[in-house]
Amino acid sequence: MLKRRSAFERLISLLQGASWAFVIIGATTFFITLYPFGFFIALIGAFIGSLGGLFFVVMFEIASLQINKFEELKKHTILLEEMVRVSKKDEKISDN
Questions:
Q1: Distance of alpha carbon 36 from its chain centroid, rounded?
Q2: Domain ranges of the chain
Q3: What CA–CA distance (Å, rounded) separates 50 from 95?
Q4: What angle do CA 48, 52, 55 make, to 5 degrees?
Q5: Core-most of 5, 52, 60, 75, by most CB within 10 Å?
Q6: Angle in degrees, 0-180, between the axes of helices 7-34 and 39-89, rounded to the nearest 10
């Protein structure tokens, strides 16, 4: 079943995709720029070039996880409130 996502969740997903594009662009640009100085230097440069985008990927992933956690907490709260309501109806709780 497809979950209906809010505009904020879609925006975070879009920004996460854009961050991955910055990772690829930064790594490629640094690699091509530094390749004349040697392959190893170019690899280090590609890693350094990708760090900015990777930072934003992590930030948007954390935001997405927090939204999912909040949604789950709302579901758990509803279930717990229902359990309390049912337990108040049944004053006796059996050990079984």
A1: 37
A2: 8-89
A3: 58
A4: 115
A5: 60
A6: 160
Query: Measured between alpha carbons, how far apart are the two ends of the chain, in Å?
Result: 35
Which DSSP state fits 37? Answer: G
Dihedral in degrees, nearest 10, Cα atoms 72, 74, 76, 80: 180
The CA distance from 63 to 72, in Å, is 14
Quick: pLDDT tens for 2-27: 678 889 999 999 999 999 999 999 99
Residues 58-85: tens digit of each pLDDT: 999 999 999 999 999 999 999 999 888 8
Please choose, from the candidates 52, 69, 91, the residue with its C-alpha nearest in 3D space to the C-alpha of residue 9. Answer: 69
**In this structure, is the dihedral angle defined by the CA atoms of residues 46, 48, 49 and 51, taken in order, positive or negative?**
positive
Which amino acid makes up residue 88? K
Rounded distance, CA 28 to CA 47, Å? 10
d(CA 56, CA 11) in angstroms, rounded, equals 14
